[in-house]
Amino acid sequence: MTADLSPHVLRTTAPVLDCAARLFAEHGSRGMAMSDLTHRIAAETDTDAACLRRAFPTRFDLTYAVVLRATRERVNTQLAADAPERPPTERMSDLVRRQVSSGWKHRAAIALSQDLLPTLRAINPARHREISSLHRTFRAHVHGIIVAGVAAGQFPIRDTGKATDSVLDTFDSLLHWYDPEAGLSLSDLGGVYVDLVIHHHLQYPR
Question: Which residues of the chain register pLDDT less than 50?
Answer without folding.
Answer: 1-5
